[in-house]
Amino acid sequence: MTSSAPDYSALAAKIKTWGRELGFQQVGITDTDLSAAEKRLEDWLKHGFHGEMDYMERHGTKRSRPDELVPGTLRVISVRMDYLPEERTAVRERLEEPGAAFISRYALGRDYHKVLRKRLQRLAERVAAEVGPFGYRVFVDSAPVLEKALAAKAGLGWIGKHTNLVNRHAGSMFFLGEIYTDLPLPVDSETSDHCGSCTACIDICPTRAIVAPYRLDARRCISYLTIELRGPIPEEFRAAMGNRIYGCDDCQLVCPWNRYARLTEETDFLPRHGLDTAGLIELFRWDEATFLQKTEGSAIRRIGYECWIRNIAVALGNAPPSIEILETLASRMDDPSPLIREHVRWALLKHETVLHRNSPA
Question: Other CB atoms closer than 10 Å to residue 131's CB: what's the count?
């Protein structure tokens, strides 16, 4: 006598309940047809908008065809988890303090990859306990996965003009994760686009990286420049970076839908080591051992110490001139790293130009 097939509709409902119990704010399910997203990706790559992110094209169609990445995949369970650690007004105030070190709010706490991956694994284990062994693989921004396109198809929101996923009840300040599975679960409906005629994100971008609605040139994006780029930051973008030393939240802070963004309930995403209130001078004085200790378990560590100091040098160059800033920058004029020395020289020259312009004739 054979056992009856699972009731997949009931199972999908249970998966969503279990997901909420594990701390996800929303769970959706979609199929693997990403043909429309694949065409957009191909066009984006063709224009070179990915810059030095070679991994975006390295895996070919595995990124847009889930069953090529994980053979047998029929469905994708997509989840989101809020990360905003403080009210948006406080974030804006911090951004407007020239001597403050601004770090994108998603990176202030524990590395989200680890937090979400562990919860997704527990969700998959709950499913296995219900239906027995099944094929699956967990992803959190760590493999060739079109997570925003999948989340949009799963009904978690729509991809906004800034290319982030937006949810009309929760804004856009949340993380995404996925479970690829061979279970033939019923799929959820997509939501419609609610950006309308709004261009706030396009207008606010400091480096004009959103070159058209729904079209981002990553080479101009401050998040790319401070996190993905390993060489010198192009001089044309340095002044516009202001005090942003890791990532940029401008397009999300100005989005009207983020008035509904909810503060995170995850203590792991709350700021650690005072990174939400640290000053540029304080962080510039860190040695490598301090950097490694203060960023242990953080997403920030992946950029490495050299790029960390590079970014802060640019921010110090944009800060109001002071003797302390000039002395702090000068302390690294002979840094062993050519990359750091070049950005320190730029920052000092910028201050000298400002001081000369403001000096009495």
Answer: 14
